[in-house]
Amino acid sequence: MVDFQKLKQMSGKKSLDTLSQEIQKIQQKQESKGPDERFWTPTVDKAGNGMAVIRFLAAPAVDGDDALPWVRGFNHGFQGPGGWYIENSLTSLNQKDPVSEYNSELWNSGVEANKEIARKQKRRLTYISNVLIVEDPKHPENNGQVKLFKFGKKIFDKITDAMNPPPEFGETPINPFDLWKGANFKLKIRKVEGYQNYDKSEFDGQSALYDGDDAKLEALWKSEYSLKEFLDPKNFKTYEELKARLTRVLGAPATTAKTASVE
Fold first, then answer.
1. How far apart are CA 103 and CA 255, in angstroms?
2. Cys-Cys with 192: which of 33, 43, 62, 197 at CB 3.0–4.6 Å?
3. Across the 263 residues of the chain, what is the mean pLDDT of every consecutive 10-residue run?
4. In the beta sheet, which residues pair with residue 231?
5. H or E stretch including 100?
6. What does the pLDDT look like over 187-245, one tens digit per residue?
7. Is residue 42 within 8 Å of residue 196, measured between CB atoms?
8. How far is CA 19 from CA 34, 54, 120, 177, 247, in A?
9. Residue 27's pLDDT is what?
10. CA–CA separation, 211 vs 216, rounded Å?
11. Which residues, at least 6 apart from 8, have a Cβ–Cβ distance to it below 8 Å?
């Protein structure tokens, strides 16, 4: 477990630089039996619009010194003749995954119809972080609670931009996950062309949570949920299990991309 005073000493440029390096690595490479009550999902109205204010939190104490304040994972969700394929992708663990391999075969076949199938079956990127719910207008009972928040590339790009603003903007880089020098995130959701859009979301000015009260901040930090569990191999099926499932969903062997019917 990380020492709280060490966390405070790391606050600022050092922690910002470390997280920026991790983001660069990502850019270079670029369920459960019931609802998980640890997760928070913003509520939208009938038109698909909504808003909330949250604060991204530091890497949880329980995850150790080298932990990041987010985890990144991939999953697949698509339907075939044999049913639905909804599984975590082994590429989350930097391992070979049968769907990714099959999609590569489809794409490399040179047949446009095969490429379209691969697009529909492509892996989906998600991130998970601990957040403090500052304001949830639809469910105020959530205010002040620590929750897990699952989000996609659009919001992660907002985090990246806050940490590495374009020089010409003259903005000061911030570490949104810093308890003392971070910033609240105004989550603004709109329905655009049938999809949820987060373009209007933005970070507020820098501020310390709880007015910098170390006792409250330490209690908050220690209440965070572990993120490492989401990349625990036990939460992923083996390559062989996934291959068998894929074969059942496709209704045929998953190695026939070059000759598969695409009608």
1. 10
2. 197
3. 76 71 60 77 94 98 93 96 96 97 96 96 97 97 98 96 87 94 97 92 96 96 96 95 96 52 31
4. none
5. helix 98-108
6. 999 999 888 999 999 999 999 999 999 999 999 999 999 999 999 999 899 999 999 99
7. no
8. 33, 19, 32, 10, 39
9. 55
10. 9
11. 180, 214
Cα(249)–Cα(78) distance, integer angstroms: 9
Pairing relationship of beta strands 124-135 and 50-56 according to DSSP bridges = antiparallel
* Whole-angstrom distance, CA of residue 37 vs CA of residue 100: 31
Q: Between helices 98-108 and 112-120, what is the axis angle to 10°? A: 160
Residue 51 DSSP SS3: strand
What phi and psi values does residue 258 have, to the nearest 5 degrees?
-75, -20
Task: Output the pTM of the full model.
Answer: 0.82
List for the chain the helix, strand, coil content (%; round to 5). Answer: 40, 25, 40
Q: Are 51 and 58 in contact (CB under 8 A)?
A: no
For residue 28, the surrounding DSSP H or E stretch is: helix 13-29
The DSSP string of 176-239 is TT-TTT-EEEEEEEEEETTEEE-TT-EEEEE--GGGG-HHHHHHHHHTPPPSGGGG-GGGS--H
Q: Are 185 and 176 in contact (CB under 8 A)?
A: yes
HSE, CB side, 13 Å, CA atoms: give it for residue 238: 3
